Amino acid sequence: MSNPFTVSLVCWHDGEPLLKSIREAVFIREQGVPAELEWDEFDKSCRHALALSQRGEAIGCGRMFSNGHIGRIAVMQQWRKKKVGTAIVEALLDYARAHDYKEVDVDAQTQALPFYRGFGFAEQGEEFIDAGLPHIKMTLQL
């Protein structure tokens, strides 16, 4: 059975309204991240993965910096546990491999460590707080 969603790589200019809607719902409203910490100058230079339902609803996203840092992985609550996050990370990893990145990293929320371990990411260093939430840096050799 095919997925009831698609994941595409987009630039910020093309995906901004949809990407913002997901991140506002997940990070700002659900997780309580202050808006001033959510929005930064890096979105314009990142490659973004955007997941859409078959009906065209924005259901998940993530971004990758040119240095291989993955961030802002977010999936709308009703779409969790349906492989949307997996498809987003896979799309970003495929992009990294296609562009000959040797390593990627993510600052993973501690509750998401098992998710990233499933791709082969390994913890690096100590837990730290970002936007009020505990994180651990994880890396993956490609």
UniProtKB/TrEMBL annotation:
Ribosomal protein in keyword set: no
Keywords (A to Z) from UniProt: Transferase
Gene3D superfamilies given in the database record: 3.40.630.30
PROSITE patterns: GNAT (PS51186)
InterPro entries on file: Acyl_CoA_acyltransferase (IPR016181), GNAT_dom (IPR000182), GNPNAT1-like (IPR039143)
UniProt GO MF annotations: glucosamine 6-phosphate N-acetyltransferase activity
Domain of life: Bacteria
Domain N-acetyltransferase: 5-142
The name this protein goes by in its record: GCN5-related N-acetyltransferase
Annotated organism of origin: Candidatus Gallionella acididurans
